[in-house]
Design a protein that fits this description.
Length: 219
Amino acid sequence: MSLTFSLAHLMGGIVLLCGFLLLSQRRLAAMITLYQIQACVLAAAAFWQGWAQHELNLYLTGIITLALKGLLLPYGLRQIVLRFNLRRAVESGMGMALSLILGVGLIGIAVLVVLPSTMRAVSLTREDLAIALSVVLLGLLVMVSRRSALAQIIGFLSTENGLVLAAIGMPGMPFVAEFSVALLVLLAFLVVGVFLLRIREHFDTLDVTGIEAIERRGR
């Protein structure tokens, strides 16, 4: 059981670390790579939890996560970067140091909220939920702090990884719920890809602040 706990915590910690490191990156290529690593580790965590819980559904979740989030979505994101020539650094709405400090604070809040409120739950489930909530909050912080629409999408995808991490750490989670979330993310990614293409055609930029400035001048 100690090995089960240790490896589950290690993989959850890597997922959390990748979410935290997203705050320190200003290049889209590096953010995509971190997201891909996060997704692949999440898939490994699903496989491990499937073995620990003796749940076939978690193996299926791992396969879907690896194929969709570990391979397909990163490939699509890189194609968007190449198509729109998004090679320059991503502008941030706040300083990097402030982003990292807020990130540490959000992790602390997640631990303080989850652990006392789940005293009767299994230790592995409690700690996985704390890590998962931290990943969700860090993804939201990436969405808020970055001005590039594509960087905000990566933050959204990282947030969804946190939700999946919470799902695989809770015994008895229906596979249909996890599959529907994965399908929803894929559909959202396709819609956002078309949306980004239209933004680039009309405004010649994916910087949110630049689009807002153009809109104000239009008024």
